[in-house]
Amino acid sequence: YPDAIGREEEWLDAWLRRHQEVTGESEQPLADGRWMLVTNRRMRNGDIVGLRIDITALKRAQTALRDSEAHLSRAQEIAGIGSWELDIASGQFTWSRELHRISGLSPDTQPTLSAVALNVHPDDFQAVPGWFADLQAGHERGPIELRIKRPAGETRVVRVEGRRVVDDAGAVRRLAGTMQDITERKMIDRQLSHAQKMEAIGNLTGGMAHDFNNLLGVIIGNVDLLKRRV
Length: 230
Description:
The protein is α+β, with helices and mostly antiparallel strands. Helix content is 49%, strand content 25%. It contains 7 helices and 8 strands. The chain has helices at residues 8-21, 56-79, 97-103, 113-119, 122-125, 128-136, 183-229, and strands at residues 25-29, 35-42, 48-54, 81-87, 93-95, 144-149, 155-166, 172-181. The strands form 2 sheets. It has a 5-stranded antiparallel β-sheet, with helices on both faces. A hairpin with a 5-residue loop joins strand 6 and strand 7 (155-166). The protein is elongated, with a radius of gyration of 35 Å. The N and C termini lie far apart (123 Å). The model has no long low-confidence stretch (mean pLDDT 82).
């Protein structure tokens, strides 16, 4: 207990008060970098029993998990792709932070299929239940594009992909997939298609003008010859 150095009596009094209050469980870091789980319980005769467990490995695993989740969250944010999972039994979705950002919903929102229905354009949502049912039945389904409306009123276009997740017995327990905001890509595709159409019209018009110019050349030549005889 390095925090007791130089203030031993004060520290001991405070430690005894906490010990007598029986605060339950607490996690305490040690000076050598280890962590200890401290558990105090009061017995029927008024005595206090304490348990000390070295949880260093658990704390390191928790830190590694948080780091891994942070790396994944940053990667999804950079790529603009969110991930989701659907528990078949409960019908509950698990969304990544990026998917909440894409949909415009708060990270505290617990998404369900009915909540998703309110977020998706009615014309597009008609295909969603069948898409999920096919995935659950084991049929391969390609991605679907949906129009979603954010709470602020902005409409976005998203691309949703999904795969089934089976257990050791081969039963489908979950569906997992991704969602990507492709609004800008769709806009660029439309602009490119319009530009290609205008280019095709321009080429057609240029070809027609060239052919018509050839006809005019013959007409003008004949008119010049006729002028000499009139």
